[in-house]
């Protein structure tokens, strides 16, 4: 049975205790605040990069500076680019065993439960702390099969041909302001290469941790899945609670070749001072399948619309998105499906929950290019409001240039009914437990797609959000 | 000798909703081992009483007390009452999409058990499954029930059986069955009533709320009460139910008016 065992024990700890702790800042190098040509060159110099990458960065910086701040989505007016530190190098070298890491960093990941998860159910782990990946591992049998799972900086050095061939091809540096920013100052992230026919049956995971205040994290991930191969990549993210804003702006590019399948799962739980502005896009070729499973719980503002470009017949794309907007949060999330080729299909399922002053917006695009006939696309967005104050909006864009297509769209908005709460309470559940159960039931179509461990984690995080909020 | 405390007692209960008084002075005493039937026409306040007993937050209590094991429960939220061993089988159970019966029951059973045993010890998944299987068998409910979403897409009969299954799992000491017979055909009614009879034991008590007498052919009440206009106007033995069936509620009304004037 796919349904996860939902553990709704009374959770005594809040975010602050579990994820919100901070380490003293002990860094090998920390760039000065603000962004200009000098900072970008400094990053490239420290990384000892080839010229082509330095030039790529500088070109991207120009795009970034030229582009206006987007105003069509969430409110970004308080985001001050001059107050952010764009690069922090936490340690001299990367470890392949946790023991090699500096004590304070190892403790951080221990507390977050990463080494334990690695032992139990992961095929490989990358752990990023501030701007650099500090730990990396991959099961030996996968290495022997030719699977590559390293941090992006290592990939630039060790697999230059592969990187050069694909880097920035799915999301060009001038795609949008934040993709340009990432392209200019990117650091860390994962590079995954799965050779033809190889199936990586257990997930690879990356964990992103911001520790310092006012810092930006700009990881860059590139995943190449060769024909007939399969990989499931999972990322998790947390940060301490600061009053000043931090910025997380990642770029993720994925290429899924003929008959291959890639699933990318995110459980984003940034602290509520983080702007999370991420560009994620995959290209799926003949008979390939790309699935984004996107859970947004944390952050102050999230703008994220994972996309699939369906390039050849038989390609299939899916976005399963869960957003939880608590007090003061704005989750502007959704998905994009671009049907370039005929006989392609896509599905977007979005479930959002808003609580208190939280605001969840679904923003999505289904685009069918001329000539892409016999396309099937389906969009379902359901919103759940937990109280009178909370707010939800839906912005479903459809650009259909072909007539022989089948497009479906459904949207619902519902409120947690008093009768549901009373019913569950009359069976002995507290109000917070009852609320969590209703919310977990609402997102069940998505949690059932997650590996058990993540489903339990997601349900637990939601229970945590309910705790202390119900009086 | 210590004074005897009834399992459940209502004293001069006045309650209503949105300022409108519906219950106008209800009194009732129920001892362990007893089945009481509460009958009355539509709109007489039976379901209001059920909700007030269970602690529905929308209902207001203007006066009176509800004592369970000697403690006034009116100030307690619904979940605390449930954890003390009170139970309401709903007339219209609510659907909770995406939550399986098994997951829901496991949490509910653990919440209630922990509170009542005073120990912080949940059932292991294996113990829980065994308990669930046992109760499903006892109530002759198909095992697939456990993996269905709570009350979602259930037929009328399935909903009522699901309520009794919950009662079986939670093992209350005092249970109110609110029109558990409504919407059931005769076979379903018998199945549900058989289940309740199997669950009943001398250590617990039942308050069976019904509009019709027919469920009382299966659940043999020790006492029958008739509610009219928010008050219990007549109480008697099981013969009262049969008399009502023959003569109808109008008969009680005339009786009641007669005695009151």
Can you describe this structure in just a few lines?
Helices cover 24% and strands 35% of the residues of chain A.
Helix content of chain A: 10-25%
Largest sheet of chain B: 6 strands, mixed
Give the overall shape of chain B. Answer: globular
Instruction: Give the number of domains of chain B.
Output: 1
Q: Percent range for helical residues of chain B? A: 25-40%
- Total number of beta strands of chain B: 10
DSSP helical segment count of chain B? 8
Order of helices and strands of chain B: EEEHEEHEHHHEHEEEHH
Q: SS-based structural class of chain A?
A: alpha/beta
Which descriptor suits the 3D outline of chain A? globular
Radius of gyration of chain A, rounded? 21 Å
Count of distinct strands of chain A: 24
Based on helices, strands and strand pairing, what is the structural class of chain B? alpha/beta
Helix tally of chain A? 13
Most extensive interface, chain pair and sizes: A-B, 29 and 34 residues
Give a topology summary:
The complex is a heterodimer of chains A (471) and B (261).
Chain A: H1 15-18, E1 29-30, H2 37-46, H3 51-66, E2 88-89, H4 103-111, H5 114-121, E3 124-129, E4 132-138, H6 140-144, E5 148-151, H7 152-158, H8 160-166, H9 177-185, E6 190-194, E7 204-209, E8 216-217, E9 220-225, E10 230-238, E11 246-248, E12 251-256, E13 261-268, E14 274-284, E15 289-296, E16 301-304, E17 307-310, E18 316-325, E19 330-339, E20 345-354, E21 359-368, E22 375-385, E23 391-400, E24 405-415, H10 418-425, H11 431-442, H12 444-447, H13 452-466
Parallel strand pairs in A: 3-7, 6-9, 7-10, 8-11, 9-12, 10-13, 11-14, 12-14, 13-15, 14-16, 14-17, 15-18, 16-19, 17-19, 18-20, 19-21, 20-22, 21-23, 22-24
Antiparallel strand pairs in A: 1-2, 3-4, 5-6
Chain B: E1 8-17, E2 20-30, E3 35-39, H1 46-54, E4 59-68, E5 71-72, H2 78-83, E6 86-89, H3 101-117, H4 125-138, H5 156-170, E7 174-178, H6 186-199, E8 205-210, E9 223-228, E10 231-236, H7 239-247, H8 249-260
Parallel strand pairs in B: 3-8, 3-9, 6-7, 7-8
Antiparallel strand pairs in B: 1-2, 1-4, 4-5, 9-10
